[in-house]
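Troubleshooting: if your tokenizer reports a length mismatch, compare your output against this known-good record of 172 residues.
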Amino acid sequence: MRLVTRISKPSGEAATRVWIVLWKAAHAIEQNALRSVSASGLGLSEFAVLEVLLHKGPQPVNVIGEKVLLTSGSITAAVDRLESKKLVRRTSDPRDLRARIVQLTDKGRSLIERAFQRHAIDMEDTMAVLRSSERTELVRLLKKVGMWAAARLDDNRQEWAHPKADSSPIPP
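Known-good structure output:
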């Protein structure tokens, strides 16, 4: 168990400042995305579900939830809303009778194709401040820090689940 961590002096921006800047930037970008998506009459989770189905084809409900970062209950509610609008339909999975496959209806495909095209233009406008090479570098850096943060979460979960016998929260 590693409860005491040394904090080294940062050679550049402090990690907390990077986090705050990232958080504020993500919020501003998300607000642009929300405005873009709302214009199509959809919420963000509904848009995300339709976008997955547009680009990945029919998918099991749980797979869609994982892709769009929604819990089991939230993905079910989003699919219910889309189904009530006749934008998607559920069918049985022939390989697993317990699972349900979600697919776009013609109405859903038409809506998400138009909405996604408009959203892509809006996101281009939102990101217009970055040159192509800067976008590439930003994606590389965000993936790098995201994967590192995810690995830290996994390590911490394992550490808490299986603490070392000789570990102590107080250093000797």
